[in-house]
Design goal:
12 strands; 10 helices; binds 2-acetamido-2-deoxy-beta-D-glucopyranose; 45% helix; two-stranded antiparallel sheet; alpha+beta; 16% strand
């Protein structure tokens, strides 16, 4: 009886095991045979094993080469970037053993700080998933479905500006976005919700300027003011978007942000070409834009500044209102009672507590008063005569 279990188990095993290999020691074997000392390998007998092993090796090798490739792209950007900004900033972060800080196999970061008008500057290099053959296949397939999907190598440069000095120094949202990227970006960025699309004219046929107020669009389209017009005319094919914003990219979920959580940023997203030196004008553009904002060269008039200020106040109020409503809904869900009901219950509890403390005489008076109140409410209201 006791030995029936192992035999059943071994039956189960047998069904899952591959059939036994035959011909391992067959003397009629005619295929290739490798021999080393006492070991003999007959590859023809291990065909599927070898194919499987080869695939695994290819995958590992592919992954290794892909990672190295991506790192080389990122490093070449980082080295060029450092050479260009060296004179502009006090500190360029040099990470140990590498010009970039790797954040996974496809993302790399560089960092700098110490310049007038700017708190910090970092770049984020996004490379294609060259290490992952399946992800690449998926991306290729997906690009056939979503024509706006783009997995080309790109770099975003983000400068965080010093906080506004107040007075004339009012925050704003302005963007210049490649038209093909508009739909996706609009969905992702909360701050762009404050802007309206303006006609770019013949200078910017591929791009849509998005501005909070029209005066901003006019200002940034002025030649020789910020360098934006000139840079895009020269190297527009490399620009995905420019966003200048003092509002969060993602919608705040807990009411308006505190002043110390707010940031003013300039963000550029650029296609990363083979020859990274082509991006030099954009690196310089970032500094020109920082100066234009810091030194208030955009010449916005008092009216415009007032409107920007008003927009911020209104946005803050609407976010606060939305959050209050959200809290209210959550409370209602939790207690199963509306705000009015909760208020009435709380009031009743207070009255009850008072009643508890009353003397008998007071209680009698109180009850009398309550009765009258109820009676008065039950009576139809006398109509006013005119
Ligand atoms: C930047 O590259 C990443 C990684 O390939 C990709 O997911 C993203 O869509 C690219 N962005 C743009 C704007 O091309």
């Amino acid at each position: 009886m006791a030995d029936s279990t192992p035999s059943r188990l071994s039956n189960v095993f047998k069904t899952f095991m591959p059939p036994p290999r035959t011909g391992l020691a067959d003397s009629n074997y005619t295929g290739v045979e490798l021999q080393w000392k006492m070991f003999v390998i007959r590859p023809a007998l291990f065909k599927w094993d070898l194919i499987g092993l080869a695939l695994v090796l290819v995958y590992i090798l592919w992954s290794f080469v892909g990672r190295r490739w991506n790192k080389r792209i990122a490093d070449s950007w980082a080295n060029h970037w450092r050479a260009v900004i060296n004179k502009q900033v006090a500190v360029v972060n040099v990470f140990k053993h590498s010009p970039t800080l790797a954040d996974g196999p496809t993302d790399f970061l560089t960092y700098a700080s110490g310049r007038r008008g700017m708190e910090r500057l970092y770049t984020h290099i996004h490379t294609r998933p060259r290490h992952d053959i399946f992800q690449q296949l998926f991306n290729t397939a997906w690009s056939l479905v979503d024509f706006n999907a783009d997995s080309a190598d790109n770099v975003s440069i983000t400068a965080t500006l010093t906080p506004g000095a107040g007075g004339q120094d009012v925050g704003f949202v302005y963007a210049l976005v490649r038209k093909s990227k508009m739909t996706n970006l609009r969905k992702k960025r909360f701050d762009l919700g404050l802007t309206r699309t303006v006609d770019g004219g013949e200078d910017w046929t591929d791009f849509a300027p998005m501005a909070e107020v029209h005066a901003l669009a006019t200002s940034f389209a002025k030649p020789h003011l910020t360098g934006l017009v000139e840079t895009v005319r020269e190297k527009g094919d490399l620009l995905n978007w420019l966003i200048i914003s003092d509002q969060p990219a993602a919608k705040p979920t807990k009411g308006p942000l505190n002043p110390d959580e707010k940031e003013r940023v300039i963000e550029l997203n650029l296609r990363l070409p083979e020859d990274v030196t082509a991006l030099t004008p954009y690196i310089m553009l970032v500094f020109n834009l920082i100066d234009a904002i810091h030194l208030q060269k955009l010449s916005l008039n008092a009216d415009t500044l007032r409107r920007l200020q008003k927009n911020r106040v209104e946005l803050g109020a609407s976010l606060a209102k939305e959050y209050a409503k959200q809290l209210e809904d959550e409370e209602e869900e939790r207690t199963g009672k509306s705000a009015e009901e909760r208020k009435r219950i709380a009031k009743k509890a207070i009255e009850d507590a008072k009643y508890e403390k009353m003397s008998n005489e007071d209680r009698r008076k109180y009850e009398e008063k309550e009765r009258k109140k109820v009676a008065r409410k039950a009576q139809p209201k006398p109509k006013m005569k005119r």
